[in-house]
Amino acid sequence: MANQSNSADAKQLTETLQALQGGLTSIPISTASTTIDQWQEVLQQSGIPALQDIDRELGNLQSLLTVGASGLDGQAIGRSLSMLGSQTSQVAATAAPELRASLTPLADFLLKAGGKLEDQK
Fold first, then answer.
1. Among the residues of the chain, which ranges form H helices?
2. pLDDT tens digits along 76-100
3. Of the given ranges (27-36, 67-76, 104-113), which has the lowest mean pLDDT?
4. Residues 6+ apart with CB under 8 A from 21
């Protein structure tokens, strides 16, 4: 990614982290869906295989956030968040420093939030 792209990506990462500060339940599903769409566009345009994997998992998460008659499946959402956290952590390990600074806490947040949801009965 070019420096200008890294700067835009770093800004979007910061905005995503700020939105998550209040916890997952503080984000309306419509806002989460819009944010997922924005990230999918960035990831699809990257052409980087590891980012394509994250894009696919974001698509899975978005489908899980579509409320059906039975409501949301917290454990399935948790598994998806955990997968996204793991994938984000792998990408952070080789990312440019300005991106790594936001990717690492994002990965940690996703892993923790995913683990909590997976453990709910």
1. 3-20, 29-46, 49-64, 74-92, 97-119
2. 999 999 999 999 999 999 998 988 9
3. 67-76
4. none
> 71 pairs with which residues across the strands?
68
88/75 Cα distance (integer angstroms): 20
Q: Which percentage of the chain shows pLDDT scores above 70? A: 93
The total number of structural domains that make up the chain: 1
Q: Given the structure tokens 């905005």, which residue do they identify? A: 15
Q: List, as one string, the DSSP characters of 14-39.
A: HHHHHHHTT-GGGS-HHHHHHHHHHH
Domain that holds residue 22: 3-119
DSSP annotation of 95:
S
**Residues 4-9: what's their mean pLDDT?**
68
Residues facing residue 68 across a β-bridge: 71
Distance from the Cα of residue 109 to its chain's centroid = 9
